[in-house]
Write the structure tokens for this entry.
Amino acid sequence: MLANLYLHWLDSTWEKKAFGKRPHDAHIVRYADDFVILCSKRPEFYLDQAKKVLDRLGLTLNAKKTRIVNAMKEPFDFLGHRFAVQPSKVTGELKTFYYPTPKAMKSVKQKIRDVVRKGQHWDWPTLVKEKVNPILRGWGNYFKTGNSRKHFLSIANYTIWTLCIMLRKKHKKRGKGWRDHPPSWFYDYHGLFKLYSLSVTGDEGSRYARPVPS
């Protein structure tokens, strides 16, 4: 709340000076106290403009997180997403793709691992439907609009692998447990949430469920 109250002045200044319109075309995208400035020229100038507003508010930029990036040459992370400009495998044209950052992947794996370890002695429906599924559903809904299909499959496989290890240890069985507990055993018989079902394929219009202006 405090970040929105303070940084409302940054938004207002940007709008007042028409930085988001031509000839500037410097667009600020902000959520609470995290923001990026998207521009095709003079990044130092627009960064300096943002610093001036923050200085007047008695605020300073995070030195570790603040940097100028040429998105055509290297990706950048924002709000748990990694944004990268890459050639489309279909058309070959350069497009902006975004997907979960390595940090976001590591974080959700840690949550799954922790809840499974703590739930070794819980009944199975409670563990799967009340503990594991909410993590997968919440994480998946946040990242589903991006190009996250491979990442979703990775997390889904990791979840099954973690559950298999838990069952193997609980019942003192050898092996990894794939034969006794294939993916269908978790999904069809025990209601494990199908994370990959949230990933959207197709054009941008279908991904966002609304028309995308050309």
About this structure: Helices lie at 2-16, 43-56, 102-118, 124-143, 149-170, 183-190, 204-208.
